[in-house]
Design brief:
The protein contains 11 helices and 9 strands. By secondary structure, the protein is α/β, with parallel strands linked by helices. It starts with 25 loop residues before the first strand and ends with a helix.
Length: 370
């Protein structure tokens, strides 16, 4: 059996066969939610296709009883790493995958969101009970969960990052991440474009899209840095939408930061390295560091007045400690004061906030309340 470096999943009310992903709206209730009137609503965008040809989907979870504008949050799930070992042009998804449960389809990505929400049995590799989504909903946030079907660590974006031609498919994880974050763009044309594309321009509640908070768990924790770096990388491209939205806070849990110790040890992490070369085909050994929290904090600092909370475990069975060394060095001197918090949970597990409701509530309060 192949071993993934990190993944995710959740637990809850449905059996694995129960969810029908072709829905317009569902009541969202788990053992951790307390308010009535929390709903789960899908928003599909057929202009962005998964490798299986299905349209990309983002799910929104929100309370219907909030009379004031709700803070906007985007939550990036984990598990977004997979590739076909020996792809063929006639059928790029045919054959053995790196992940034992093939992760390059819309169905898998939609299921992963339901697991993250605590509505499906969790994957045994990650603590994921739905406590963090419940805490966000109870705090009155309008939270969007984009479903990543491209297995690309939220990195690729056709037109801005080169997809590996030998896979015979396009990866667009960051394209989806950017599309959902761009709803908060200060550029009105950009915000309107994506709001209309997904159908967010016809909501029954009032959402404050003037800023956004970003949550990433497991591999999803790489997406916030991808969004920040994206604004720098595409700024020189004529016509590119590069304006970074105002980020209020970032919450990252159980995410390997600087992958350089991994990509520099091919013998130990051969399968992971082979996949990373597909995702980052250009000088992947150094580019993995450029997209890390460590490098972003060193190079540009925290954007605006945003906060950053990072949770990790020095005994996480899936995240090598070396990937967090640089972040620990920065935190030791911490030039950002209370705006940056790095917490070692000391728990022998992968995932923390999505399995501890009290901790999730406190972290959400810190993110939304500064």
């Amino acid at each position: 059996m192949r071993t993934l470096l990190l993944l995710p999943f959740a637990a809850g009310c449905f059996t694995p066969e129960a969810p029908t992903f072709d829905v317009t709206e569902l009541a969202y209730a788990t053992e951790y939610t307390q308010s009535e009137g929390i709903v789960l609503r899908p928003f599909r965008y057929d202009g962005l296709l998964c490798p299986d040809g299905e349209g990309a989907t983002a799910y929104a979870v929100y309370r219907t009883d909030i009379p004031t504008p709700m803070p906007y949050v985007v939550y990036f799930h984990g598990g977004s790493f997979d590739y076909v070992l020996d792809p063929v042009p006639e059928d790029p998804l045919f054959g053995p995958h790196y992940a034992d449960d093939a992760r390059l389809t819309a169905e898998w990505a939609n299921r992963r969101v339901f697991q993250t929400l605590g509505l499906l049995e969790p994957d045994p590799t990650e603590v994921s009970l739905g406590t963090l989504p419940a805490a966000l909903a109870e705090a009155g946030a309008f939270t969007v969960y984009p479903a990543n079907c491209w297995g690309d660590l939220w990195h690729n974006e056709f037109g801005y990052e080169r997809n590996a031609e030998e896979e015979y498919l396009l990866r667009n994880g960051r394209a989806l991440a950017w599309a959902t974050v761009a709803l908060a763009s200060p550029d009105a044309d950009t915000a309107t474009r994506w709001s209309t594309a997904f159908g967010f321009d016809d909501l029954p509640v009032d959402v404050d899209f003037s800023s956004v908070s970003l949550v990433g768990v497991s591999e999803g924790g790489r997406a916030p840095m991808e969004i920040i770096r994206r604004s720098q990388r595409v700024a020189s491209i004529p016509g590119a939408s590069a304006t970074l939205p105002t980020i209020d806070g970032m919450l990252i849990d159980s995410t390997p930061d600087n992958y350089y110790p991994i990509v520099s040890d091919y013998t130990r992490f051969q399968g992971l390295n082979d996949g990373i070369r597909r995702i980052y085909p250009d000088d992947y050994s150094t580019s993995m560091g450029w997209w890390s929290m460590q490098r972003v904090l060193n190079d540009t600092g925290l954007p605006g007045q945003s906060t950053l909370q990072v949770f990790w475990s020095s005994v996480d069975p899936q995240v090598p400690n070396e990937t967090m060394d640089g972040l620990e060095i920065i935190y030791a001197s911490n030039p950002f004061g209370a705006r940056f918090q790095l917490t070692d949970t000391g728990l022998p597990q992968h995932g923390y906030l999505n399995g501890d409701y009290a901790a999730a509530r406190q972290a959400v309060q810190g993110m939304l309340g500064g």
